[in-house]
Amino acid sequence: SQCIGCAEVRLARGYGDQKNIRMAAKLHACILYLVAAGFHAAAWMGSSQFATRRFRPLAAASQSEDELKTRTEILLFNSLSRKKEPLKPLNGNKVSMYTCGPTVYDFAHVGNFRAFLTYDLIKRVLLYFGYDIEHVCNLTDVDDKIINRANEQGIEVITDLTRKFEALFFQDLEALNILPANIYPRATEHIEEMMEMILGLADNGLAYETDDGSWYFATDKKDGYGSQLVDLNWDEMETSERGEGEMKRNPQDFCLWKAFKPGIDRDDCSWESPQIKRGRPGWHLECSAMARKYLGDSIDIHGGGVDLKFPHHENEIAQSEGFTGKTFCNCWLHNGFVNINNEKMSKSLGNFMTLRAACPKPQQVRAYRYLVITSQYRNPLSFTPEVIQASEKTLKRIDKILRQIDDALNEARNGTNDKCQPSPLASSIVPNALDNFEKALADDLSMPRAAASLFTIVKAAENEFKNLAKNDSYELDIHGLRSAKSAIVQMDNIFGILYDVPRREGSDEDSPSDSNNVDKIPDDVLQLVSRRTEAKEAKDWDLADSLRSRIAEMGFEVKDVKDGEPLVSRLT
Question: What pTM was estimated for this model as a whole?
């Protein structure tokens, strides 16, 4: 463990020779794999042991009071105030963060994973600046959609469905190099806490029971409801719940507890107590109950997609503050949609793509991570084959310069070309880029600016090798290249793109709702496309034309894209 800790510190600080950096990267990947694998095993066994285990990935070191006072101020756009505000944790160096997790009845789609990558970005930035984070991400394992899917498929035990998709979800998180939360609590293991909140809200005059045994939140009794994260037009507002009866006092009231309905509900998805009749919790209640159990009455950050502002997050605020009488969350962060064909990607619209279908190859998974991480998290993001291919090309560029630097550093270690010389790259370009990088992170996670800082270094390093290619007697700036490599590795603590994508078990071919499966291109066709690209770069036009003809004979066409990877599609 001492070796692992030492290697991770060297990686986090962005220095050390290539052997140490690679060792740290491999050890860090192993740590994440073992954590995820351990949790998955427990999930499949149905154990709650791991549901309460505290993971601490890349935890920040303890800091003195002087260090706390001089820490970089981080500005975040707070959906509650509708403006950027400095992060002010309730408990000094420790940040409590709750994020909305998946409903585990199907594969998560790439739009869902934008939210999980945004959570990852927030955590990495906070860890980078020295904060310690307690992160809770829930698993919704009781829901109308889960019950319907289990009934449709004739599944006798509903956990056979939910545990399956839990495990697949964690595999996808690992594939995207997402740091795991400290805890992933399941809704079904926190029924008692939810019942406690219902009865407490009733005592406070904010919840009522209907004749069938359901419970509702009385929205007209809660000051400020509908104006926290949104500004509702009450005259135009309709009921906020699907399939609710006429027993609600107001159309705006939302369900806390759904009474058991014979022929619709299931015995393995229902609970009761002396005060609450047989039924199951409403969707919104689980997050309030689990956030309170693991993080306390008030938390620092709550994250989710912009579509969750209302009703889900607005209802969380009403429930939590109605129960405790305290501010529930100080900073609400919401990421934008992922759009496909200029329309929000969602399962309800039927236009979604799972990560496994949209990004079947490891390099495409890395490309999707890069695409999301380098975007402005609050803005919509278009998902197309072209943008994924552009991201792949960018990653190849980064990988190439790192290989070139490695080769140059290895040659220098062998006793050549390691002369001490003035280095503008080390003394000016790299420090300025790192300074701009950190300023971008602290300004509401301005990742397009952060990416620009990364490529300031990449371009400067590339220029070194271009100069060498033009002049064999040119002496590489070894000190500058070493500094550039160190800075890129340091920046990757945020980007998280320098890793080997682990193999994911299973397939999404049995996903009943994924009708947008990618038309996969055979490997031999891709190899010809790669050879054609190399021929074009070498200006061997005859060979390039010949390879294009061979690709066409195999049933595919190649379309060249300016400053991007060629597009390959099947001939129709």
Answer: 0.78
